[in-house]
């Protein structure tokens, strides 16, 4: 199932400081968005609000599949929307136990669940580590486990907060592979990053948080911005 999220008059305030005010915001279905902005402008806060993990100071967010429980409890999380933190929380257990966690109550047989987990781990190159304790993994491998756990749930919208920070190239490539697969399935992704990389290159829309609001640019403008930045970098390198 693919869904759309709509936000209206969304604002976040900390005491006297207005972090941002966004009149209208829409994501999905099947979009790839690069969310950029300086440190402290509220990128992580915005992703948490969209996922239902945080409540805005004013405004509201709706998803096409929000049920009564979600409407009653504003921090209950949003169905089919996953927020992937740059330092993901992993359980004290094996790699397999971490990935299977999201589907532990599904109606599939144990055999089918295991097949799904092994497929996910194969996609991130960690199938041989399925029975290893999570503590033996490197930082990049842990991020890949978190991505596998998100992928297995087939989210309609995946919000990725600095997913490539401090990752080696193999880990980035594996996460890109999974992100592409989700896009092919009709999911949407939002990626925050301080620098352009293979993940941000998947994006066809740009959100830029600046001056306490959000500026949206279509693909053409993103390409133009990229060219200008590349030309600037080249001219200063010579």
Can you tell me about this structure?
With 238 residues, the chain is an alpha/beta fold. It contains seven helices and nine strands. The protein has helices spanning 43-51, 68-72, 95-100, 110-123, 139-152, 169-184, 219-237; strands spanning 5-14, 17-27, 32-36, 58-63, 81-84, 157-161, 188-192, 205-210, 213-218. The strands form two sheets. It has a six-stranded mixed β-sheet with strand order 5-6-7-3-8-9, with helices on both faces. The protein has a three-stranded antiparallel β-sheet with strand order 2-1-4, with helices on one face. Helix 6 links the parallel strand 6 and strand 7. Helix 4 crosses helix 5 and helix 5 packs parallel to helix 6. It is globular. Residues 68-76 have low confidence and may be disordered. Keywords: ATP-binding, Nucleotide-binding, Transport. This is Energy-coupling factor ABC transporter ATP-binding protein. Belongs to the ABC transporter superfamily. It comes from Vibrio japonicus.
Summarize the structure.
The protein has 238 residues and is α/β, with parallel strands linked by helices. The chain has helices spanning 43-51, 68-72, 95-100, 110-123, 139-152, 169-184, 219-237; strands spanning 5-14, 17-27, 32-36, 58-63, 81-84, 157-161, 188-192, 205-210, 213-218.
* Uncertain residue segments: 68-76
Adjacency order of strands in the biggest sheet: 5-6-7-3-8-9
- Radius of gyration, rounded? 18 Å
- The best one-word shape is globular
Instruction: Look at the helices and sheets and give the structural class.
Output: alpha/beta
Range of helix content: 25-40%
According to DSSP, the number of beta strands is 9
Distance between the termini: 50 Å
Summed up, the helix count is 7
Largest sheet data: 6 strands, mixed
* Mean pLDDT level: 86
Topology order in helix (H) and strand (E) letters:
EEEHEHEHHHEHEEEH
Task: Tell me what portion of residues adopts beta-strand conformation.
Answer: 15-25%
What is the multimeric organization of the chains shown? single chain
């Amino acid at each position: 199932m693919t869904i759309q999220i709509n936000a209206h008059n969304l604002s976040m305030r900390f005491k006297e400081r207005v972090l941002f005010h966004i009149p209208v915001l829409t994501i999905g279905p099947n979009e790839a968005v690069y969310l950029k902005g300086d440190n402290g402008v509220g990128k992580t806060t915005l992703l948490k609000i969209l996922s239902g993990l945080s409540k805005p100071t004013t405004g509201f967010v709706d998803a096409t599949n929000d049920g009564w429980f979600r409407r009653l409890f504003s921090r209950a999380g949003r169905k089919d929307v996953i927020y992937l933190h740059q330092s993901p929380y992993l359980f004290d257990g094996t790699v397999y136990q971490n990935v299977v966690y999201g589907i532990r109550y599904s109606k599939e047989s144990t055999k089918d669940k295991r097949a799904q987990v092994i497929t996910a781990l194969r996609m991130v190159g960690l199938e041989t580590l399925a029975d290893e304790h999570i503590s033996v993994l490197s930082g990049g491998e842990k991020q890949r486990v978190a991505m596998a756990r998100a992928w297995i749930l087939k989210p309609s919208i995946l919000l990725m907060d600095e997913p490539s920070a401090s990752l080696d190239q193999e880990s980035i490539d594996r996460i890109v592979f999974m992100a592409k697969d989700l896009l092919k399935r009709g999911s949407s992704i939002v990626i925050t990053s301080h620098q352009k990389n293979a993940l941000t290159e998947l994006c066809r829309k740009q959100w830029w948080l600046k001056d306490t609001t959000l500026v949206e640019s279509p693909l053409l403008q993103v390409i133009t911005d990229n060219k200008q930045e590349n030309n600037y970098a080249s001219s200063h390198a010579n």
